[in-house]
Amino acid sequence: MLDSRLSEPGDAVRRRRRCRSCGRRFTTYERYDEGPLQIRKRDGSRQLFDRAKLVAGLQRAAIKRPIDRDQIEALVDRIVAELRAEGGTPDAERLGELALRGLKELDRVAYVRFASVYRKFEDVEQFEAELARLDAEPPLQREHLFELPRGRGSVRPHDQAMELPPEAGNRAAARGSAGE
Predict the structure, then answer these.
(1) Using CB atoms within 10 A of its CB, is residue 84 exposed (0-12), middle (13-18) or buried (19+)?
(2) pLDDT tens, position by position, 152-175
């Protein structure tokens, strides 16, 4: 290994490496993958988490608001991190509440729009009640919202070689992680 550092968004480790066989240099990006996230729907069924569906819903709520795509993507990243930190199979309700909490930080109008669809408002009184609750709630503690679990470090075992191609004993492990 020649160099190792966090990539720009901070979601991956960027490594500069040298091939043992030919000596060429190349870059790899390593991300921790916990596998698919499943959500328990209101009817009790389980469904794979669909990131694109959540992004689309948040974007609909943010139409013509001063929220850009990067802010929405960052919010979804925080929501996924929170759900994974809690473990198990989260409820769709928990997913919706985290989305509301995040939108409340970004834009109150987008928050009310999302809440109106998510909570199925049927009349103006429900909008007014949501606005009253929005004004009455204290601001969220920024340091506690969407905290990542502590102790998340490298996913690479300390004794594993950092150069490629892997030695004979590590080839099976390399094949398993090649799709990342």
Answers:
(1) middle
(2) 444 444 444 444 444 444 444 444
C-alpha span between 26 and 165 (Å, rounded): 12
Give the C-alpha separation, 79 to 102, whole Å.
8
Task: Report the DSSP beta bridge partners of residue 19.
Answer: 164
- Determine which helix (DSSP H) or strand (DSSP E) holds 18, and give its type and residue range: strand 13-18
| CA-based nearest residue to 103, from 136, 132, 146, 39 | 146
| Distance from C-alpha of 83 to C-alpha of 89, rounded to nearest angstrom | 8
The first and second tokens of residue 97, run together, are 């509440």
* pLDDT tens sequence across 112-128: 999 999 999 999 999 89
Compute the distance between CA of residue 79 and CA of residue 54 in angstroms, rounded to an integer.
10
Angle at 108 between CA 102 and CA 111, to 5 degrees: 55
pLDDT per residue over 82-119, tens digit each? 898 888 899 999 999 999 999 999 999 999 999 999 99
Q: 10 Å Cβ neighbour count for 114?
A: 22
User: How far apart (Å, rounded) are the C-alpha atoms in residues 62 and 93?
Assistant: 20
Indicate the domain borders of the chain: 1-32, 38-136
| Cα gap 30→154, rounded to integer Å | 9
Write the single-letter amino acid at 120.
Answer: K
